[in-house]
Amino acid sequence: DVKVTQSSRYLVKRTGEKVFLECVQDMDHENMFWYRQDPGLGLRLIYFSYDVKMKEKGDIPEGYSVSREKKERFSLILESASTNQTSMYLCASSLDAGNYGYTFGSGTRLTVV
Amino acid sequence: QQQVKQSPQSLIVQKGGISIINCAYENTAFDYFPWYQQFPGKGPALLIAIRPDVSEKKEGRFTISFNKSAKQFSLHIMDSQPGDSATYFCAAVNFNKFYFGSGTKLNVKP
Question: Which of A100, A103, A106 to mutate to test the interface with B (most CBs of B within 10 A)?
């Protein structure tokens, strides 16, 4: 089974801090995704990547950036954390563009105070 | 604008009953419709999925009904069990872009 590992389960950060959320997958998947999950809003796509050093904006990229230096690792960066970025962040990966089988990590609950 | 509308937001069902969750979409280019199940503290996990060339898919107690003309699809959980209590998300997919519904919190009472 594919494993998608998110480095932190819970994080508490201060407003204005630069925050790094890390995601690693172990099955050589091409595609990786970052979502945030908020009650009543479902999952919203922040950024995704189809290949190393490649990234594309999702539906809500403002205030975020990403980095994919290695195929297995996809990092989400909050340049200057704000309280409205308090949320559950989910990383996902899939094999390739024609394969719609998503595997999600367990999530990182980020609180910005 | 939400691409996929999901209802109800929450659902309480007695053990042994049928749970029904509905989703509707507008974009006819969607070509894959998965359902995800999420337990507290866990990421969503794929439960069952359907492509628009079939009207129904069944896996155990879980069935997707798909109505292409109405642009609606639904998840039916037969003989619902307390272990089915979770949040369920529908999604519609095009070119590997997923659009998720807002989720339904299902509580199955013993």
Answer: A100
